[in-house]
Design goal:
The chain contains 14 helices and 13 strands. By secondary structure, the chain is of the alpha/beta class. The chain has a single domain, classed as Rossmann fold, CATH 3.40.50.1820. The strands form two sheets. Strands 5-2-1-7-6-8-9-10-11-13-12 form an eleven-stranded mixed β-sheet, with helices on both faces. Strands 3-4 form a two-stranded antiparallel ribbon. α6 crosses α7. The longest helix has 15 residues. Pfam families: DUF900. InterPro entries: AB_hydrolase_fold, DUF900_hydrolase. This is Esterase/lipase superfamily enzyme.
Amino acid sequence: MKRHFRWIALPVIMLLSGCISGVDYGKVRHADYVADPRCTPQAGAPVDGAALPLFFVTSRLPDCRTADIELLSYRGDRVRYGRFAAPRDVKVGGKERFRTPLALQDQSDWWRALQAETDRRHGRVLLYVHGYRESFETTTKDAAQIARMTGFEGPVIAYSWPSQHDVLGYAVDETNMYHDVRNFRDFLKALAEQPWVREVVIVSHSLGARLVVPAIAYVDRAAPSADSRNISNIILASPDIDRETFERDISDGVLAPAKVARDRRITLYVSLKDKALAASRALHGYPRLGSPYCFDPFEAAELKAEGLPERCYPDAIPGLTVIDTTDVSRGTTGHSNFLLSAAACRDFIAVIAGKRTRPERSPTRWRHVFRLLPDPSMPKEMDETICHRNAEAETP
């Protein structure tokens, strides 16, 4: 199923609060899912790193009852570690299923494998955190696409919390995301404290921003001052987080002057055509960081009177760059432009590579805000080529 179809009904369904679904325990004891020893791998158990080149950390409950381990939408009894490859369609019981090849791994072995891969590269690690309505398969699909598209020189880690992969499950996803705050922040702290990690590039999508931003603030407070310096390049794609709360808190926390002076930065990808965030705004009552919606109608009227687009952005904060993808939006909902639109993908690739500026960015009256405009040399047919290309392709 195409990514944009996953969101097609969200604006209507989220407003029908009486229809929001819950979650039940299921027909299988959770202890039975993990009874097989493969759910608790022993130290030294072999894992084929060549066949499973990507890394994952998850708080999802695994199902180890069948030949192929699955990661479910339930909360797990603990955080688990493993390796994976890009998901693919496979035959299961005579039916076509979209599955991620994976293996769980002993935690100590996992950290040693991550160190070996990091040392073999340039000390850089990319950590991807998904948003609402994602399964383990869709999460790993996106993480694999990011690895392939950017040609990232270093290990790529997908952090997967127990999203329901259900359009009616937004409230459950919020609940599980907040429940997972401690798990994620402890993992991020452990990653940042590794002496062999030179830089952690963090990419979050949608609801994942609400895990990432406070976790970085926690690491800054809890870790020795030198240990969080390697968290420098932070990308929030379509962040489903309160814009006013972000503005109020960010310069005293994640983008505190001392952190910015040590080269920390945040890049936001926003779009006014993001229907998912418009629905989230209607549900929460206030604008989301990933949408330049003008909550103040007087501000919108002033922009219109000046002949400017009616788009409102977070305040200028040192270390913050806003990339407006409204004009190059793709998909039914415009919620995943960084994975769907050639113009946005090219910009995202450059940011991952550490570039601060690009000539393709169109400046605005706000020095921290840039628009991506349609490029006749990159028609929609180029989206697939740029956003799903091989790692060997030329970096812009």
